[in-house]
Amino acid sequence: MSFSDKFIKRPVLTTVCSILIVLVGVISIPTLPIASLPNIANPVIQVSSGYSGANAEVTEQAVTNPLEQQINGTPGVSYITSNSDMEGNSSISVYFDETTDIDIDQVNVQNRVSLALPQLPKQVSDTGVSVKQSTPSILLAYQVGSTEGQFDISYLNGLIYEQLYYPLSRVEGVATVTVYGGATPAFWLFVDPDKLTANGLTSEDVISAVKAQNSVAIGGLIGGPPASGDQTFTYPILVEDNGNLITIEQFENLIISRTETGNLLKLRDVGEVRYGTNTYTIQATDKKSQPALTVAVFQTPTSNALDVSKAVVEQMNKFAATVPPGVKVDQIYDIGQFIEASVDGVIDALGLAIILVLVILFLFLQNWRATIVPSLAIPISLVGAFGFLKVFGFSINQLTLLGLVLATGLVVDDAIVVIEAVSSNIEKGMRPRQAAMECMGELFGALVATALVLMAVFVPVAFYPGSIGIIYKQFALTIAFSIGISAFNALTFSPMLSGLILPKEQPRQPKGWGWIVAGVIVGLAFGKFSANSFGSWTYVAGVLIGGFAGANLSRIFASFNAGFGRLQKAYANLLQQLIKARKLVMAVLVAGMVLTLLAFNAIPGAFIPEEDQGYGMGIFQLQNGASLVETQKVGIQIAEILRKEDDIENASVINGAGFNGSSPDQGLFFYGFKPISERRNDKDSADAIIERLNAQLIELSSGLAIAIAPPAVPGFSPSGGFYFQFNDLSNGTFGFNEFSEMAGKLIKTANTSGDFSSVFTQFNPSSPAVGLSIDRDVMGALNVDYQEAMNTIAIVTGGNYSGLTYESGQVRNIYVQGTPDQRKNFDDILDIYVHDREGNLVQVSQFASIDLSSAPPVINHYNLYRSILIQGSEAAGKSSGQALDTMQQIFKQENFTNIGSAFTGLAALQLSSGNASLVVFGLGLLFVYLVLSAQYESYVTPVIILATVPLAMLGALAFLSMRSIDLNIYAQVGLVTLIGLAAKNGILIVEVAEQRLQQGKSAVEAVIESAESRLRPILMTAIAALAGFLPLVVANGAGSHSQQSLGTVIFGGLLVATVLSLGVVPPFYVVIKGLEARLFKQKQQDGSDDASIAGAS
Fold this sequence. Notes:
Blueprint: H1 5-9, H2 11-28, E1 44-50, H3 56-71, E2 77-85, E3 89-96, H4 102-116, H5 122-127, E4 130-134, E5 140-146, H6 153-163, H7 165-169, E6 174-180, E7 185-191, H8 193-198, H9 203-213, E8 221-222, E9 235-236, H10 248-252, E10 255-258, E11 264-266, H11 267-270, E12 271-277, E13 283-286, E14 292-299, H12 305-322, E15 327-334, H13 335-365, H14 368-391, H15 398-427, H16 432-456, H17 466-491, H18 493-501, H19 513-534, H20 537-551, H21 553-580, H22 582-602, E16 615-621, H23 628-644, E17 648-655, E18 666-673, H24 686-697, E19 704-708, E20 722-728, H25 736-751, E21 756-761, E22 767-774, H26 776-781, H27 786-798, E23 800-807, E24 810-818, H28 827-830, E25 833-835, E26 841-843, E27 848-855, E28 858-862, E29 865-874, H29 880-894, E30 899-904, H30 906-913, H31 916-936, H32 941-945, H33 949-962, H34 969-998, H35 1003-1033, H36 1040-1096
Parallel strand pairs: 7-24
Antiparallel strand pairs: 1-3, 1-4, 2-3, 2-28, 5-14, 5-15, 6-14, 7-12, 8-9, 10-11, 13-17, 16-18, 16-19, 17-18, 20-29, 20-30, 21-29, 22-27, 23-24, 25-26, 28-29
């Protein structure tokens, strides 16, 4: 009695088992998170601080260096990058190994920052150092502006910070909310140095007055405990505004000093007060060049992007519903929309695959009852797999869904084999249940072997470490789960159902309106799952083809049967010829293996293909020292280019900002496209739009402007392309200009190599600056304190944090700075007065001089070394792998001294993966071989079964080459899957051939009989699988590049493997069995000789 007999005899038990499998999956689906990809990015902790008035070099030395030196060595750190800019901003990004706990990482970094605080300037310590979990990629961006430009930036900024900023910041999963062009509201006290001097004061006196008169005041209690026995009340004492200055009028009335005549000198007498923002260094507009602020949301590393996106969009909609008329709130882009669209695209491919597989099954089986058996295997296996996804902590993402699409073509295979065998026994006169029990004894070994082989391919994947392992694991194990359920289903449910519902007699020819209606329904289903990618015309085509097929099923079946009969006869004749010419077949097999090795080296490697995510971005850089006003002029030209592009719905130009620090001479721009469903033509793709933009941006007369794609995988970098760190290992021996010249040489060589569309850097080594030289001897003779003098100068020219106050319950910083008119020219610095140690005024010109100088507006670090960030992307027709290799080769050729290099972001992950695919492929092949060896108790038989694997690889690589697709991670996963798929057909032939061989037939007779008898199930399972893979091959829309990569490999490889397995495996079987027989005979002869010698002795 076989394993399946108990289930065939007990249909209720069998049905309950299948229902439970489906129920577990159905219950699990709503609880699974949805994502585009599993989280493979490094956890990032962002350390941010500000040193108002400091330039980039001072910020680097006084703030960034002490912090980095303490953070360096934190457990689990992968690498550290930072930037210090001319506005005094220090931003340090600490990237951790993907295996670490981000919460523990944050605590460890916070502890290290606490150790560094005593080494930082007092202003930095007072304003605080922020330590947050974050990612470098913007999750989504909105624009807040006005319909006709009727609201100024100040109003819009106040609106955002009063009604939007804090609610957005509270959304779970939001790390940072950045308002480009705006900032947290603040009070600015602009003082006139001349008026201060006339009153014997300096800006330091103003700060002292602010600190003295703006502080929280405690009133206490009247009648508070302990109180006398007759106390009948307790009242708190309310100090007006709690002691803080909270309005412009109150600040204007701030008492600075008392004159000799007894009059009070107030702030309004020496300056003015403005309610503004923390910074004025960035200015943003919409694509009409109207003032508009860009609200960018960054998520935490471990949060679910889609969940965060939905929560943020809900908050934005609430805000949009409350703004005054004339204020517009437009979405620039939302990665959540791409995630939903890409997941929906794979779901459509899954639905389409199921329909096509069922159609192929019905065409072969020509019996709706028989078609039901393998059809039910699909929902049982696919839905049941979701239960395993829940157990293993996976999400519903492109990888797991693509695994299910591939599984659709695989899970029916076993059921097809069962239904074919049962039907064959029924035709011999057996009753359905008896036919099912009879065939399962013969099929048990083949079904188990096939399932084990397909699952064994993925066993090594489950143990592969790092981000690459996560990608392989989620895809591969999803297929393994489905195949495992499918195998159980084939051994239990399929034979039981076959025994119950298969007819004893040949079914009648299908005809009538019912079949036409069924064909129309199938056509409508086809249209539903293909319309999003290919348009509504697919409904019409599906209905027409389905209705026609339903009306002509008998003719279609007759034509198919006649054609298949001719194919069987032709194959029988061809098989005889191939076995006779088996030496030639072996030569072709060896040649195919050699070509496969050559093809592996010929196909360019890549990592994750760039998708059309519905948006793009760009950078622009002006000549050294350009003011924000000049940058705005270029921004207007860029906005006009964006406005003229029909496929761009909304855009934002941000002057003064950069991905790697802020500077007045640079800028960013973001632009969102129309929905991908409205951009079906190639000219409307993201790549085509970016190419058109760059063709116009290159014509700009001022500076450099480049449109670039977003990051292929969010969380690795702010933008797409590669990030290459050019590092100064000389400990500062190189000057900025010399360092920049070396990087420029590398960039020039790269741009002339032909492998890059662009290679550039935003590093500016010599932005014009004013050099201030101090004669300390003279200063000492004048009794001037150096630190106090420098503070006074810095306050007037750069502004100084002077404390905080509260407005509507929110913290507002206070800054003191000289009036704009008093810091316009170089000589204004020398006109400033400072106090000597006795309180007398001394003009700066008495101990200082100025000259023109230069300094970088932004200084970058990589692992504590000064670094120049070089960005680039591969040229059309080149792969990312080729671009990275070329960049490394050029760097080596230049042979720089004391210069290091490193890729960061996705490029670093791609390089670290190395030959991961070869390792996984090799281990998968080894596991399959060992499983087959155990199954057949032979080390030789598996060699026959696996003979077509190299040829399947060759077919896959050939199809990739024909479609100009790189050997990316999806294609690599497909190649691993092909090992099992290619071996499957060999198993079906060899399994029956071995049984015939044991019955006493010769190897030639056994394999011919086996191949001819298995032709139909092999072709049925292969064509059904190919039909299931076809939607991936022709995918269109969001996520289509990934689907096409995987689908092309699987489709091309399986197609070639199926054709060649029918032609190569039988001759190879005869050759191997002949060698095996001769070897066994020789061993017997040797044994006889040994026995003879022993007897003679």
